[in-house]
Design goal:
The protein is about 65% helix and about 10% strand. By secondary structure, it is an alpha/beta fold. The protein is built from 16 helices and 13 strands. A hairpin with a 2-residue loop joins strand 4 and strand 5. The chain is elongated, with a radius of gyration of 56 Å. About 15% of the residues are buried. The termini are far apart. The protein has 4 domains: about 80 residues, no CATH class; about 160 residues; about 60 residues; about 230 residues, Trna Endonuclease, Chain: A, domain 1.
């Protein structure tokens, strides 16, 4: 029987798959697959899952994304539609048309003949009954012979009509039988044709599938071979690179060990360093001298500069080695690497010598002469404080700011704080803060470093050394060490701190806090001090005495505090 619709063809193609999938559960809706329609629903939901998982699938014919799932489903049905189109081409169109026409015409004729014959028979029986009734009444009545003859004539006509009708029905039945026979023959012929082309199609499809499997197997084999070759080549290359990297790292470590450990004992390393660059300069001078148009004067100048440069680089490298060696012995020197030398010197010199300035000398870094003369006391000091807080800060400034913040926190808890780092500079020996309360004395080291940096054990040893020195100088007191940092310690540094009983506070970030120190002098005067004052770090704040930190000048003055015009040794 010919298949003359795509959906019917699709169902026919799914029958083998349906036989293997029947009674299985559709994972998308939980229903059991019992019909081909259930299988079609499962495949549609599976394709929809693929489509939603990757909506960037490109139609190879339009080179664009599929706009909807239906469009994607139609694309998936294309191979089956092509098969169906080939199938229809193989089924003769005239036969297909004749089949449908004859089938429809034959069915119609059969229906008409059946209805016509039934009508004729019904009509005959009605006439027969009528004639019988008429004859009966004529026999009962005393009618003349002429009327009886008329009744007999009518009866004869009815029988004659019945015979003719029966003959017509028999004739029509013969034609219907012939039509049925012809229709049956056409159906058999069409089925045979369809079966032939189906077999031909299946043979062709099987041939193509075999060819596809063969080509696919060949491609997979080639791919595996290529992949194996690439993996092997990659492994060999990686092994060679790893070995080379290991050699380079080994040499690098060896050189660093020489530089770090023997720089003080083997100054010849600096000579080798300078000679290396000197050889490069000599090569440049030789090239100038030996080129096509020699530059003899330039060559002599380069050689003269190269000799001077060699000596300078040697001395510079020696000093660099010495500084690195000193930093290894004294870790606190690292805190001064980023400080402006002039600024650090002026800060320490002014602090140590208690220099006195005019009032404007203290503010000239933050206010112009016009602003100082024009603004009120409250306004000019507040403006100076605001600009001080917004200034660009060096690493030195950041370190001092962090120490002051930690000191503020302890002063707020009732501790007496001495700002060693800010007051003593290089002489603090790693004791940034000395914090006392009753019988407890804390030696605090502060490190505000970037989160990417790590505190190593040498800084812990430095703080422990400070504890030992403090205990020797004042054995009556018990000292405890605290290391506070904005970053983290290495694992070895933590173990060292635990062993030496030094408390560690990691990731302790800086936060904003009030900067104005409101202090009571020995005579009871209420004086406030600003962070850019030279003697700011010498001023203690005791909350128990009514002293405090203020955020603004207005807040300090509202509580009766005034500016310290000249610093004295009252405090």
């Amino acid at each position: 029987m010919a298949i003359l619709s795509f959906e019917e063809y699709k169902r026919q193609k799914l029958k083998p798959e349906f036989e293997t999938s029947v009674n299985k559960v559709n994972p998308y809706n939980g229903k059991v697959i019992r019909t081909v329609d259930d299988l079609i629903e499962y495949k549609r939901e599976y394709n929809f899952e693929l489509y939603t998982a990757d909506k960037t699938i490109i139609n190879p014919y339009t080179k664009e994304n599929f706009a909807t799932f239906d469009e994607y489903q139609q694309f998936l049905d294309l191979p089956l539609r092509w098969e169906y189109d080939e199938y229809l081409k193989n089924v003769s169109p005239p036969e297909r048309s004749n089949f449908y026409f004859l089938k429809k015409t034959g069915n119609t004729l059969i229906l008409i003949v059946k209805i016509g014959c039934s009508g004729i028979l019904l009509f005959w029986w009605i006439l027969y009954i009528i004639s019988a009734v008429i004859t009966y009444f004529l026999n009962l009545s005393n009618v003349n012979l002429h009327n009886q003859e008329i009744g007999l004539l009518i009866t004869i006509l009815i029988y004659f009509f019945f015979i003719i009708s029966t003959a017509l029905i028999i004739e029509k039945d013969d034609k219907v039988s012939n039509l049925k026979s012809e229709l049956s023959n056409l159906e058999k012929k069409l089925n045979n044709t369809a079966t032939f082309y189906e077999m031909k199609y299946e043979d062709k499809l099987q041939s193509l599938e075999d060819e596809y499997r063969e080509k696919n197997s060949e491609l997979e084999t080639n791919f595996r071979h290529k992949n194996d070759d690439l993996v092997k080549s990659y492994s060999q290359t990686k092994l060679a690179l790893d070995k080379r990297e290991e050699e380079i790292n080994s040499r690098k470590v060896y050189i660093e060990n020489i530089v770090n450990e023997t720089s003080q004992k083997y100054p010849w390393l600096a000579t080798i360093y300078s000679e290396l660059f000197y050889s490069v300069d000599k090569k440049i001078a030789a090239d100038l001298k030996n080129k096509k148009r020699p530059a003899l004067k330039a060559s002599d100048s380069v050689m003269e500069i190269a000799q001077e440069k060699r000596q300078l680089m040697k001395e510079n490298k020696m000093l660099e080695y010495q500084l690195h060696y000193l930093e290894t012995l004294f870790p606190w020197l690292e805190d001064f690497e980023e400080a402006d030398p002039y600024k650090a010197h002026d800060y320490i010199y002014a602090t140590e010598n208690n220099l006195e300035h005019t009032e404007y000398d203290k503010l000239k870094s933050w206010l112009s002469p016009e602003e100082y003369a024009k603004l009120s006391t409250t306004e000019k000091y507040q403006l100076a404080l605001d600009r001080y807080q917004k200034r660009k800060k060096s690493d030195w400034d950041i370190g001092i700011e962090y120490e002051r913040y930690i000191g503020y926190l302890y002063e707020s808890k009732g501790y007496k704080v001495k700002y060693n780092g800010a007051l003593m500079g290089l002489e603090d020996m790693g004791r940034d803060l000395l914090v006392e309360k009753e019988y407890e004395t804390l030696v605090i080291q502060c490190k505000r470093w970037a989160k990417s940096k790590t505190i190593h054990e040498k800084h812990i040893f430095q703080l422990y050394g400070s504890l030992v020195v403090a205990s020797i100088k004042d054995p009556q007191k018990t000292y405890k060490g605290i290391f506070i940092t904005s970053t983290t310690l290495s694992s070895l540094a933590k173990k060292c701190a635990d062993t030496l009983k030094i408390k560690v506070k990691e990731n302790f970030d800086f936060d904003s806090y009030p900067l104005i120190k409101c202090n009571l002098s020995k005579t009871g005067e209420k004086i406030y001090h600003l962070p850019f004052d030279q003697q700011y770090d010498r001023v203690d704040i005791s909350p128990s005495k009514g002293e405090f930190y203020a955020y603004t000048i207005k807040e300090a003055e509202a509580k009766g505090f005034r500016r310290a015009f000249r610093w004295t040794a009252d405090k």
